[in-house]
Structure formats: C-alpha cells, structure tokens
Amino acid sequence: MTGVLRSFAERLSRGRVLRRRLPANLGGHTLYVTPDSALKLWRRELWQADPLLLSVATELVHPGDTVWDVGANVGLFTFAAAFLAGAGGHVLAVEADDWLTTLLRRSAAGLPASHAPVDVLTAAVSDSAGIAELCIAARGRAGNHLRDVAGSSQAGGTRAVSKVVTVTLDGLLDVLPAPRVLKLDTEGAEARCLQGAERLLSTIRPAVFCEVNAENVEAAGEILRRHGYLLFDAQVPPRDRHPLPEPVWDTLALPGP
Prior knowledge:
Layout: H1 3-13, E1 18-21, E2 30-33, H2 46-49, H3 51-60, E3 66-70, H4 76-85, E4 90-95, H5 98-109, E5 118-122, E6 124-125, E7 130-137, E8 145-146, E9 158-167, H6 169-173, E10 181-184, H7 190-195, H8 198-204, E11 207-211, H9 217-226, E12 229-233, E13 250-255
Parallel strand pairs: 3-4, 3-10, 4-5, 6-9, 10-11
Antiparallel strand pairs: 1-2, 7-8, 7-9, 11-13, 12-13
C-alpha cells in the first residue's frame, strides 16, 4: 500500500466500528473492532488479522484457565481465550485506551454461557501504580504507548495524549484470580510490566506470550531468566522450537523445571 493510500485508509478508519466474527474453531463470537486500531481489521476474516496471536491462544489456553490479556486492543486474544478456557475459566482484558475498552465491553456483553466470563480493566500496566500519560498513535491505536517509553516506529507520531491509571501485575494479583497464561503487548513497556511482576513470576509462574522490542531485550531477558523461564520464538512451530539466549519480537516464555 502506498503512503498516500495508507494515509487515506487511516483517516477513513478514525472512529469506525465494525462487527467481525472469530473463526468457528475459536467459538465464532462476534467482536466489535475498529480499523482505527490496525488497517488489517478491515478484513472480514479475523484469523487473517493476526494468525500468530490466535495460534498461540490455541496452544496455551486450556479449559478452566485464568488468562490475563495485557494490552488487549480489540480483544482477539481475549475472546479466543474465553472460548478456549470455557465456562470454568476467567479472562481479564487490560487496555489503557478507554475508547478500545468501550469496544471490549460491547464484545464481552454478548458472550455465551459456554465461554469464560471476561472482565475489562481500563489501565496501563507498568512497574508502579500511579498516573501516566498515554500517547494515542497517529497511525493506528495498536501503536499507543506510554509517553515515557519509546513505543514503536509504526505509531507514526502522536495524535493525542490522555491521562491513564497505571497498575502492576503483582498489584492485580492481590485482588484477582492468578493467571495460568499471561499475554503482554504494551508497545515498549514490557520490561516495566515484568519489573512489576516479581511475585507473579516467582510464585505463580504463568506461561507468558510477550512482544519484546529491541530496547527491552536485555532487561526483559534478565527478569525472565532470573525466574527460571525458558525463552522461545513463538513464530517457530512448537515441534521445532529450541530455547533462546535472549527474547525475540514474539517471545514465548515458559517456566522451566
């Protein structure tokens, strides 16, 4: 897509809400999504929007699981996990952008009883509780990031800045069921999220699927290795995976023996 066409499509996407369905093998639930988050959400088939995300959900989430989706965006992982965990499970969707959490709540309102209930929390996860500034990405809301982290080059600048509440993963552990699966996609804040999860990583030891940008490789890798996690490239098929010395962009961190 040329720069001019992309810019036109991004302007057309602002504030647009679409109804899309998850694949039948992930429950077929209808989600409210927006191409203002990512242009790929114009596609009618959600599995085409992020096949790796849905594949990892299928691999990690089992009936009865509690799942935390941090940086939930429009909820592809959230609602795939709700189907996979079933009625005996529980899913927490954490998203800092209040416009996106409005869509998450609309999607959660129509969940059938056979799915895990989904709670939606409007907050950013970091290394301390407080108030921070969230930069709303100029190009797509999937690139939103806290103002004091680098974020992604795909953000294309900032269209607006809003105040957000920050929480820690250990703080959530004080008041919510502990997760067996943790997904992190926080656009440059992943090391901070892990720094605020010392107790979670040392005592609960969930499976972690985490996007790690270049600035966070060293810090995120140190934290995960210190807690006995083995690191893998989630893009590699499970049968072909081998432990890695450092995180990669799509890191799967599994607790070691």
